[in-house]
C-alpha cells in the first residue's frame, strides 16, 4: 500500500527532513536579502543593544496582549488583539535576529546551540536583567480599558520612533521600520477607536477608561530618557533619541483623550531609563516565566 503523505510529512520534507527546534521560529532566515553589514563608525555592541531595546518592547507587549486571548470582551476584539500581538512578535523576531547577527548572543548568558536560532535563544533563554524593555510594556494589563489605553500609548510612542527609523543608516533597522510603521499605524488607530468608545460611552466605561489612563501615564516616566547607547547611535544617524518624539506623542495622546472626554493625567517627570538598563520589577520576571517556561524545560526539543 502506497504511503499517504500527511501534513506533518509535508512540513518535514519542506525543510529537507531536518529536525527543527520545537518552540521557535527557525524556518526561514528572517533577514534574507537585507544588507546586514554594520554601518561604518558604529559599534556593533551598541547596535545590538538598541535592537534588543526595540525588540524586547515588542516581545513583552505581545506576551501581555496574548493574555487576553479567550478573555477579551468580544470575539472580534479577541481576534484583533491576537493579530496586534502577532504583528509585534514579528517585529521582535526581526529585531532580535539583528541583535544576534551583530554578536549580541555571544555576549549574553543565552543558551547558544546550533539548533536554536539567535532570535529564539534571545527570546527564551535570557534572564530578566538581560531584557531591555520599558515598564510601559511590562506592567500588568489591568482591565480591558487599561489595556486599551496602554496599547494606545505604546503604539503611539513606537510608531513615532519607527517612522523616524525609516531613515536609519542601518539598512536592517530601516527595513524593519518601513514594514512596522504600517502595522503600528493600525495598532494606534484601533486602540484610539476603543478609547473613544469607552471614554465617551457609559458612565462606567468612562470611569474605567479614566482609571486606565491614570494607571498608564506614570509608566511614561522613563520612555523619553535616552540611554548612552541611544545617544551615541542617534548621533551616528542610526537610532532615534526618544526625547525627539516626546512632543508628537503628547500631541496625539492629548487629542485622543480630549475627544474621548477624558482628562489627560499629569505628565510624569523624566526618570532614569531603568528598564533599558536591565532593572525591572517582579512583574517582568513573572511574565518571562510564562513566556519561557516550556522552552527552558525542554531546551533541546525538536519536531
Q: Find the structural class using helix and strand composition.
A: mainly alpha
pLDDT under 50 segments (min length 5)?
none
Tell me how many strands there are.
0
Tally of alpha and pi helices: 12
CATH H-level homologous superfamily name:
Ferritin, core subunit, four-helix bundle
Q: What Rg do the Cα atoms give?
A: 20 Å
- Domains counted in the coordinates: how many? 1
CATH class: Mainly Alpha
- Cα shape: globular
Distance between the first and last residues' Cα: 26 Å
What is the helix fraction of residues, given as a range? 55-70%
Taken in chain order, the helices and strands follow as HHHHHHHHHHHH
How would you explain this protein's 3D organization?
58% of the residues lie in helices and 0% in strands. By secondary structure, the chain is mainly α. The model has no long low-confidence stretch (mean pLDDT 89). This is Ring-1,2-phenylacetyl-CoA epoxidase subunit PaaC. It comes from Geodermatophilus ruber.
Amino acid at each position: 500500500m502506497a504511503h499517504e503523505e500527511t501534513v506533518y510529512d509535508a512540513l518535514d520534507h519542506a525543510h529537507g527532513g531536518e529536525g527543527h527546534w520545537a518552540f521557535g521560529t527557525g524556518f526561514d532566515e528572517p533577514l534574507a536579502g537585507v544588507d546586514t553589514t554594520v554601518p561604518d563608525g558604529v559599534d556593533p555592541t551598541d547596535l545590538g543593544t538598541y535592537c534588543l531595546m526595540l525588540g524586547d518592547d515588542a516581545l513583552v507587549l505581545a506576551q501581555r496582549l496574548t493574555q487576553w486571548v479567550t478573555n477579551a470582551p468580544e470575539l472580534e476584539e479577541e481576534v484583533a488583539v491576537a493579530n496586534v500581538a502577532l504583528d509585534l512578535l514579528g517585529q521582535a523576531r526581526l529585531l532580535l535576529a539583528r541583535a544576534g547577527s551583530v554578536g549580541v548572543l555571544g555576549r549574553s548568558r543565552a543558551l547558544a546551540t546550533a539548533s536554536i536560532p539567535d532570535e529564539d535563544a534571545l527570546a527564551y533563554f535570557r534572564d530578566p536583567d538581560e531584557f531591555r524593555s520599558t515598564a510601559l510594556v511590562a506592567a500588568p494589563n489591568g482591565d480591558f480599558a487599561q489595556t486599551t489605553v496602554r496599547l494606545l500609548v505604546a503604539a503611539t510612542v513606537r510608531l513615532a520612533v519607527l517612522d523616524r527609523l525609516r531613515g536609519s543608516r542601518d539598512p536592517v533597522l530601516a527595513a524593519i521600520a518601513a514594514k512596522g510603521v504600517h502595522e503600528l499605524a493600525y495598532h494606534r488607530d484601533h486602540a484610539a477607536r476603543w478609547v473613544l468608545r469607552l471614554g465617551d460611552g457609559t458612565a462606567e466605561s468612562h470611569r474605567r477608561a479614566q482609571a486606565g489612563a491614570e494607571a498608564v501615564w506614570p509608566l511614561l516616566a522613563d520612555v523619553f530618557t535616552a540611554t548612552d547607547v541611544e545617544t551615541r547611535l542617534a548621533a551616528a544617524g542610526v537610532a532615534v533619541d526618544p526625547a525627539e518624539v516626546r512632543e508628537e506623542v503628547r500631541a496625539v495622546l492629548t487629542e485622543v483623550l480630549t475627544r474621548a472626554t477624558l482628562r489627560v493625567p499629569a505628565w510624569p517627570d523624566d526618570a532614569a531609563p531603568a528598564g533599558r538598563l536591565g532593572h525591572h520589577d517582579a512583574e517582568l520576571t513573572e511574565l518571562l516565566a510564562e513566556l519561557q517556561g516550556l522552552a527552558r524545560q525542554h531546551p533541546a526539543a525538536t519536531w
